[in-house]
Amino acid sequence: MIDQMSRAPIVVDIMAVVLVLVLPAIVLSIVLAKRRQYLLHKRIQQVIAVVMGILIIGFEYEMRTMGWRQIAEDSPYYDSYVMPALIVHLLFAIPTFVLWILVVYGAAKNFGTPPKPSKYSMIHKRMGRAASYLSFGTGITAWLFYWLAFVVG
């Protein structure tokens, strides 16, 4: 039997592990786009979008139905750092989610198959860069919140 990494619900543990994999995948995807390997860039981004979409839905369902506070109360940081860490995380996560939807939708609407540069390319590049930076902020703050709320103690 596999032991969980933390006190967190399993979907939260899975999200923590997937974030370790997604962030390097984002970097790889950007490198591929810079090398004009647009189709591979597109495929990696599609996989990231689908995987993260499924995980976010599962995560939100779990948090809404099971909650997290009663589990996080065992953390020595529950009354001090857990909520500030969550707030900072949400300041990254919510804009990241919205921007990724816009980037993916814009790419689907403005790039053909196979994808190639168009008038939309500069907008896509700028929005994608912002979404990537926000994704790293989301990942770092998610790990911090995860550690403070569910691992320590």
From TrEMBL:
Keywords: Membrane, Transmembrane, Transmembrane helix. The keyword ATP-binding does not apply. The keyword Transmembrane applies. It comes from the Bacteria. InterPro entries: DUF420 (IPR007352). Pfam families: DUF420. The chain crosses the membrane at residues 12-32, 44-61, 81-108, 129-149. This is DUF420 domain-containing protein. It comes from Pseudobacteriovorax antillogorgiicola. The lineage of its organism: Bacteria, Pseudomonadati, Bdellovibrionota, Oligoflexia, Oligoflexales.
